[in-house]
Amino acid sequence: MNRIVIGRYIPGNSFLYRMDPRTKLIAMILLMVSVFLIQSFIHMLVALLLVALLLVFGGISVKRVYLGLRPLVFLLIFTFLFQVLFNRQGDLLYSLELHYTVLNLSIAMALVIMWGFTKRFLRFRLLYFLATVAGVFLLFHYLPFGIVLGEGTFSVYEQGLSTAFFIMVRLVIIITLSTILTITTKPTDLNLGLESILRPLRILRINAEEIAMIIAISLRYIPTLLDEANKIMLAQASRGVDFQEGKLKDKVIQVVSLLVPMFIISFQRSDDLANAMETRSFVPGQKRTRLHILHWSGLDTTALAFTCAALIGVILLRVVGW
Amino acid sequence: MNMIDIENLSFTYGGKVEALKNVSLCVKKGEWVTILGHNGSGKSTLAKLIVGLLKPQKGTIRVDGVELSERTVHDIRKKVGIVFQNPDNQFVGVTVRDDIAFGLENLRIPREEMIERIEHYAKRVDMYSYLNKEPQALSGGQKQRVAIAGILAMRTEVIIFDEATSMLDPDGRKRILSYMRKLRDDGVTVVTITHDMREAVQSDRIVVLKDGEILKADKSEDVLKDKETLEKSNLELLLPLEVLHGLEHKKSTNEEIKEFLWQLSLNG
Description:
Chain A contains twelve helices and two strands, in the order αααααβααβααααα. Chain A is mostly helical. In chain A, helix 3 packs parallel to helix 8 (158-184) and helix 6 runs antiparallel to helix 7 (125-142).
């Protein structure tokens, strides 16, 4: 749980660190919109290259971004495989005949069981899982002997592959951009930036300051609650609960045994925190002076101009149809 | 002149549990008073009533001559600060600096003055080098020192410590106690709420609470030596006083003294 990287500021000195948080927030949103508007394969690769350049010139280690992406690798691969396997639009690119026989089905089952037993001893579990899935498909193709129970094909279509590519690259770019934002911006500044951007919502009687404070306090208490969850898990583990293994039913019971105390503790904490805030003269909606103030510089104007240009460029490319 | 005046204060939780029954007490300006009592004696309820987190159902509370009411509660909170038991649950800011600033921002202190006060009071609780640290990088004692700096920076005239040392290690506790002493020496009114006799010993006066009633209110020395009152409220005598008490009660021979000290150490 301590390996969570999203939302963690890492001190640094590049131009990204010197930028106003408002610029970074608006630029991130504009770039995300741009990425969703891109339709061409080459433009997407260019966008990916630009993000990579941003990482290099922004002095952010790729390893850090990878750590941010790691919890989502499974989701990315699952999305990719789902599109490749089930999207059947466009030209057929590749086809593999599959024969389901008693022999290869038995071997496939043995492979899956072996995977289930041996996965815990290996480091690269995801790769091992993918290799097992690939192995099962190859078995169905290259071992068609014995009593045949059924036939099928594994087909990859053009549309499936391109959609899978676009979804994956879009997700990678979005996560990378948000990781860049959180790595280079102190939570306090991020909060101030958000508050400043949301301020026009006052017309709709929405108090931006309160929303920003709620977000700030939530971020502040994430490590505390993770710590608390770890303590409860250790306490449960010392009484024989195994959070790693077990049947699905056991896992549900284990999660409930973790969630109930977590809820009680969170409510207790929020009650105490509300008391502490009130006694320190906090009144919701009341005007406050601020310790931190934001500075807009030429760098921000330039960065925002570039981002707007990128968005307009993408829109024009889409309109022209290149 | 009295800083806090409480008259015939009563409070019942949910109409059933009587936490305070007709409590009357006063705390003088610049005095250090300890509210001593076992769990459930009503001492934390009293603290919450003084800072207006709970509403008195009967009786009155006056702080610096102003009666506590919905209209005056915000003004009274500018005069009375409180440090709670759990250091983690009162850390509002993302960093130490932000946390000390929180109360000042609420009081609408100008930014330049805010920066000055933050640095001054962080130095005072030996947390200056930690100003940019996040709470997870601090120990419980350090977080509690930040909470104290946050209250000091607001320049309140009264500081209540509601079991503020009970979750700390011995070193952290000693430090907080030394700040309490310094505060009293600087003329700040200090109210500590505790069941720890070692914390009470340094205060000017002790008020013993039991089941929501005041059992005794006197000079610290007189209360701490009063074995009968302390026993009645499930509190123990300080070890040196226990020894003194035992020796005074006909334990004259060496063997008797040895046996008495042995029994005392067995009972912790």
